[in-house]
Amino acid sequence: METAYQSDIGQQRSENQDRVDSFATDAGMQLDLVADGIGGNRGGDVAAQTTVQTLGQRFLKSAPNDEAAAKQWLADQVQQINDQIIDESRKNENYQGMGTTLVAAIFFNDRQKIVIANIGDSRGYIMHQNVLTQVTVDHSLVNELVKNGDLTEQEAAVSPQNNIITRAIGISHDAQIDVNVFPFEPGDQLLMCSDGLSKTVDKQELAQVLQSDAPLKDKCSVLVEKANAAGGPDNITVLISQNDQER
Question: Is the pLDDT of residue 160 over 80?
């Protein structure tokens, strides 16, 4: 597995509360993580960093060894971290209201499938045979309004409520994370990002960058540059992993 990632403060933020990392075990398993912190006084930074580092350290110590175990492991770990962050926010008034979104992916050593989990509006996409598909569903107020028929997709794209999320780690003790399994074939690419990218660069542009022959590190840089060129209203974080097994 080849992986690259980059995080940028953007053009309009005073600090970067996004966190990104990738953890690989000696047995060839891998965990990719992108978190977008919520809350002032560094609270969002603390929540995102706690989530990424705790998940990564626990994965390296006891990575789940099959699909069913991975799905349960992600759900259990997120619930534990969620409770930890809520408890910390209650103890420290500077961290009140802190939380974080999360998108996570687990690869097994055979590279045949990928387990993807998400809570909030950070996203995961899979590029397969030059077709880019979003494989996570945003947990946002706008998305709920679209599903209920109260907003059209066109109205949602310009809605002033498009920054309101309905689920996140640290918001309530009932942290519901979506976990799904997808094929991941040789040559396929996984793109994970915070909303600082997905809300400024459209899907067609994302696909064009991934379709190029550039190194993954350069693809990450190009996507960050595009988000900043579009105004960079939020922190921008992108991770790309590619199945480098032979076809």
Answer: no
